[in-house]
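Dig into this one:

. . .
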Amino acid sequence: MSRSASKSEEKSHSFRFRRPEDSDSGDEVSRPQSGRRSSYITKSTGACVHCKSLKVRCEFGPGENACQRCQAGNIPCESRSRKKRKAAPTHEDLQERAHSQDCQIQSLLLQFDRMRTEKKIQVFMSHAYSGEYGDIDKLSNCQLPRLAIETGGRKFSRLGYRALLNLSPPDIVKHCCLYPGDITELFTMCVLPFFSILDPELHTPQKLIWTCPFLFTVICATASRYCTSKAGLYSLARDFARDAAGKALVDGVKKIDICQAYLLLGVYPSPKKKWAEDRSWLLMGVAIRMALELELHLPPPYDCDEREALNRTRTWLNCYCVDGSHAIQFGKMPMLRLDDYTARTSQNWYRSSSINMPYDVHLVAYVQILLIMAKWRSIDLDVVQFTVQTERELTKEWSLWFGRYEEELVRNPFPLCYYRANTTEMITAYLRLVVLATGFQDAFKLGLSRDSDILRRSIDAARTVIQIMVERLYQTGFLKYAMDANFLYVSFSAAYLLNLLRPKLLPLLDENTHEEIIRTVERLISVLGSEDVALDGRHTPALYSRFLINLLSKYNARPKRRSETPPDSIRFHPQFNEERRPSPPGWPDIQQIPGSSEHGTAPTLSGYEPGLIYQEAGDADMDFSLGHFVRTVSELPSNQYQYNNVDSTLWNDQWNVWPSQLKW
């Protein structure tokens, strides 16, 4: 066979003649060079499937469509086709896939949060577990629906039993073993009447347990400290309240109930090991900022319900009072405007509606008194002269509200109304002392005598503050529920009086005034440290009682009589620590270099007037401001003021004189 014939035969084997309908989509099609148009010459792109698996070339006979190897093996000769490409996903497919992944991630995060919460609750339980409650971290599944139905009340009964099964009570209910009777006791018997910010018609446990679990938790936690039937519950409940505060801040939900919850946490702080650990100012700031964002400082909307409108205004006025009181205590600028419209126009708000609370009159009176203090802080004039003027304005303002109190007490003769009226008078006297103490330290540089108007008025204001608490508030039995700020007021007043006993200032007092100051402070110490007021040795009144004991022992040089004993009606807490504590620092002194004076030197010998007491060159400068007092107390470790049994030598035979009935 010639070479040309061999090439022709190989060429014929490498071509397959098929009809157009027999051609594969994967074959390469070309027209033959001949003139026949009825068929196509299809060139194989490679070996068939079977030959490809054997890694050999296909061999075709003349005019055959199947290779010889497939024919010999009786195997279908199938040409290899191009693999079908997977269709590209559409935009909708991508969105659905992303949503599915997001749901999966969210589910994993929820599982992680649930595990972390359970771990945190286990830590709470390990710290505060008490065997008298049994296994309080486990309630059977049948108890929770029953609890939800009982506490849900008629308003939530429309949800049905199946809907209530899906609702989860707050953690404080599930893990503190709180049943409907316990919740009712915490809301009505203990603390709720003392929260002037809450309306008993709006803030019911049946409503708050579902609408605002945060406020519900705060009320239960705060009240648990005063509930004797659940001893030991407070240490666990406060952890849940603190945890709920953090969750509410992270969630970013803005509601009036949440604002009120932060305010309550700020004015009823939990005990801390150190004064510096107290975060009341932070919680107050969150509440005030939320109130501004809720526009509570503006008049209520026209479509607002009447009770809800009162709730908005009441919450804002409480924010104004908390902000003003905190600014005065620490000597800082308030967060709110001094000329706030709602505060300035609130004189008659307490009787603007028939559903006003009986305690709204006391809230409005406090607002008007703080407006006078705001004016005093904003003016920088002759300190001594303006001090006396402001003190007279405060006295006049209290006289005005005293008359209004008498009118309201005729309509609402409740014991708590008398208590609040006495508290407002005590706060007014305390603010008078704050103003007069500032003028006293300036007048002392110029010279003071026994007949000084500022000295006489300041002593009267300080004694009034203490007498109201000892003779009126203590007799009501409500004093243990008071805010910590009330105990700060009387402690500052007592410290101011004791400072007058130092040798430098002692000539300003006659013998009767000297003895009266000692008796007044001793009576206050006994009240603050008694079991009827101090819940335990860490409660704020007990700490201030220990502070005043040390301060009195430092400045009281009169001889002690062992026959003096406290009255039998007062019971004191057990002794926490018998170790003798050092005396507190010399408040209100400010350390200076000897021989120097920030305000110059005292008058020369030729400039002295008989009977006047001056601040001489080299004497430590004194700061009688409340802010300096708070800072002095805050810098001391709290264990220095753990309450001990009061020495019987601190008492005198005047103790048997107690008011037999409530006086106001």
Q: What stands out?
A: Residues 383 and 439 are 6 Å apart (CA to CA). The chain has a mean pLDDT of 75. The longest helix spans residues 91-128.
